[in-house]
Amino acid sequence: MSKKIFSGVQPTGNLHLGNYLGAIKNFVELNNDNQNECIFCVVDLHAITVKQDKDQLKKNILETTATFIASGINPTKSIIFNQSKVHAHAEGSWILSCISPMGWLNRMTQFKDKAGKDKEKASVGLYIYPVLMASDILLYDATHVPVGEDQKQHLELTRDIANKFNKDFDCHNFLKAPEPLIKKNFSRIMSLKDGLKKMSKSDPSDLSRINLTDTKDEIINKIKKAKTDSLPIPSENEKLKSRPEAENLLGIYSSISNQTLDKTLDEFGGKNFSNLKSQLAEILSNKISPISDEIKKLLNDKEYLNKVLTHGANKADEIAEKKIIEMKRIIGF
Ligand code: TYM
């Protein structure tokens, strides 16, 4: 069955292995299936929900675009664009925010995490950010949205917003409630320094994550220093429950080598971590460092990257414009 795919990544720098295994690797697989229509967005409007340096933001937009292409997304097949170039995203977000109850937004756990202790100081944009995400998805009638586990709640909200709009304005199935595509087992990659914390671009320790721009030596060093426990690797899945670091490293190995966790446990069960670490470092550096090299190469050709974004924005605009015109007609403008 053909799928309409939409997903986005924030251009906030330090794209890491969690972004790759949780999202971008799946974008590439979906891009490679000729039956799918894919749209991948550099969500710069989302990025400004927290303060950004303007020169750095510009750089990060191009770096995220380069990461998509270097990872294997083909810009002549899939649409790649940056959100701020298509005005319907912001317009749709306003309309949808007017039908979204505050109670729904109050339940978003990511806002609570990101706003931290001093919620009064968080921007209004950070608070309504999930509505902008709903607008992104619903403007394109996306049927499937590949994301990591941390975005699941936002996708549930998107479905609720779509259904509420259709009900409020009596327009059955005008906005299409999308399905999340979340890879079982590998949708939440954890920090290399603490198996209970998500791998994140904002972690102050660079050793906690593998950046997609890391060199081979940096990758090897980070895996060498990754936290483990003192027991040998178990052979059964069940025994991983109270061992988050072991579970994370085995999960990363399974995902990057496209095999099930059970197969990885068969391979490493009973062995010690040095064995897993040396093989993991090798497979990761073989997979990630060519992407890193390609990102650097693409960043030398800014003209090409800007061309990809402009071409993508024109195509995205054609689709989104039709939807927003119809949306405005439905609400009585
Ligand atoms: P962002 O930019 O934080 O992350 C991009 C993608 O990477 C996934 N991800 C992870 N997956 C597994 N383990 C991790 N440690 C990890 N860290 C990040 C995220 O789940 C995400 O899929 N709101 C979104 C961007 C967005 C979007 C959209 C996504 C805006 N509009 C429309 C889908 C559809 C975000 O901030 O992702």
Note poorly predicted spans.
none
In percent, how helical is the residue content?
Answer: 40-55%
Query: How many helical elements?
Result: 13
H/E series: EHEHHEHHHHEHEHHHHH
Q: Based on the coordinates given, report the CATH architecture of the largest domain.
A: 3-Layer(aba) Sandwich
Gyration radius (Cα, Å) is 20 Å
Explain the overall architecture.
The structure is a single chain. The chain has 333 residues and is mainly α. It folds into two domains: 4-187 and 302-331, Rossmann fold (3-Layer(aba) Sandwich); 206-297, Tyrosyl-Transfer RNA Synthetase (Orthogonal Bundle), CATH 1.10.240.10. Helix content is 54%, strand content 7%. It contains 13 helices and five strands. The protein has helices spanning 17-32, 44-47, 54-71, 88-97, 102-106, 109-115, 124-138, 152-168, 216-224, 244-256, 261-268, 273-299, 302-331; strands at residues 4-9, 37-42, 79-82, 144-146, 179-181. Strands 1-2-3 form a three-stranded parallel sheet. Helix 8 (152-168) links the parallel strand 4 (144-146) and strand 5. It starts with a strand and ends with a helix. The model has no long low-confidence stretch (mean pLDDT 96). The structure holds tryptophanyl-5'AMP. Tryptophanyl-5'AMP (TYM) binds next to strand 1, helix 1 and helix 7.
List keywords for this structure.
Tyrosyl-Transfer RNA Synthetase, single chain, 333 residues, mainly alpha, Rossmann fold, 2 domains, two-stranded parallel sheet, 3-stranded parallel β-sheet, binds tryptophanyl-5'AMP, globular
Question: What are the SSEs and their pairings?
Answer:
Layout: E1 4-9, H1 17-32, E2 37-42, H2 44-47, H3 54-71, E3 79-82, H4 88-97, H5 102-106, H6 109-115, H7 124-138, E4 144-146, H8 152-168, E5 179-181, H9 216-224, H10 244-256, H11 261-268, H12 273-299, H13 302-331
Parallel strand pairs: 1-2, 2-3, 4-5
Helix pairs in contact: 3-12, 4-7, 4-13, 7-8, 9-12, 10-11, 10-12
